[in-house]
Design goal:
9-stranded parallel β-sheet; 11 helices; globular; 305 residues; disordered N terminus; TIM Barrel
Length: 305
């Protein structure tokens, strides 16, 4: 069984000081997600973004998981470097994609050696892309709930899972999403982070449904600021849902002015965050796309002075 390193061992113990659930219990939090870089240049840009956000003292940062090859290695290196070189608690993503149970165990052990205490357990998209039919890897795991159980078997991890205020592309309706979410809670999930969405009402409805299903874990809303006209097409590919008509119209009206588009998107995301926090959300989790500017601006608007 992999174990977390004991105090005094030569690992980044600063990353082990708190679990995500402990951090969320302290009051509204801000956290930021990054993607594994594709190149050395991308890795340098990622680190500039992390360093720009570090003075904000986020509750944690998380790094998404490349399913195989060099991106997976870069994910692991990034997680290890954040743990070793910063004071930021880091959440490592892990998916079932392209790995046997033993390979997953080896990755989990590597997280533990780096001092990582928090892991987000995801099934992951099919290797051919989200539109493909999901097929588990031979000798691997079928669902995120299986990965939640494996993480708890392998060490003392705080395990997060995904939540979907808007139906997952593979779900027929909201009831299906709540059913699978309840199964992940039953498997031992400690917290959840949602897919990005546009209407606070969708988030609060999902939380209410989860509570009715007996899931009491904290559910952190995910927000992705729209900062370019091209994202009107890109965001639906990522989430499986269209950008709201009113937001799309406001962006299209100024599509020829990148600064104006960004201003519209930042204002929309700021208003969404304010509504979420006012309604009792435990914090805001920003999907940064490895860029810090919009997230920092929204953070500043939400935390004046």
């Amino acid at each position: 069984m992999a174990r977390l390193a004991a105090a005094g061992e030569t690992v980044a113990c600063r990353a082990m000081t708190a679990t995500v659930t402990q951090l969320l219990a302290r009051g509204p939090t801000f956290s930021f997600e990054f993607m594994p870089p594709r190149s050395d240049e991308g890795e340098a840009a990622l680190w500039r973004a992390i360093r720009d956000l570090e003075p904000l003292r986020p509750a944690f940062v998380d790094v998404t998981y490349g399913a195989g090859g060099s991106r997976r290695d870069r994910t692991l290196r990034t997680v290890e470097r954040v743990a070793a070189e910063t004071d930021l608690p880091v959440v490592a993503h892990l998916t079932c994609v392209g790995a046997t149970r033993e390979e997953l165990r080896a990755t989990i052990a590597r997280f533990a050696r780096a001092g990582v205490r928090n892991v987000l357990a995801l099934r992951g998209d099919p290797a051919g892309g989200p539109a493909e039919v999901w097929e588990p890897h031979a000798g691997g795991l079928r669902q995120a709930e299986d990965l939640v159980r494996l993480l708890h078997e392998e060490g003392e991890f705080c395990v997060g899972v995904a939540a979907y205020p808007l139906p997952h592309r593979e779900s027929a309706d909201d009831a299906g999403d709540l059913k699978y979410f309840a199964q992940k809670c039953g498997a031992g999930a400690d917290f959840a982070i949602t897919q990005f969405f546009y209407d606070a009402g969708d988030y609060f409805a999902f939380v209410a449904g989860a509570r009715e299903a007996g899931c009491e874990i904290p559910i952190l809303p995910g927000v992705m600021p729209l900062t370019s006209a091209g994202q009107l097409a890109r965001f639906p590919e990522l989430s499986g849902h269209p950008v709201p008509v009113d937001l799309a119209a406001r962006v299209q009206a100024v599509a020829g002015d990148p600064d104006a588009v960004r201003a519209v998107g930042v204002a929309f995301a700021t208003a969404l965050c304010r509504e979420l926090l006012a309604g009792g959300a435990p914090g805001i989790h920003f999907y940064t796309l490895n860029r810090s500017t919009a997230a920092r601006e929204i953070h500043a608007r939400l935390t004046p002075g």
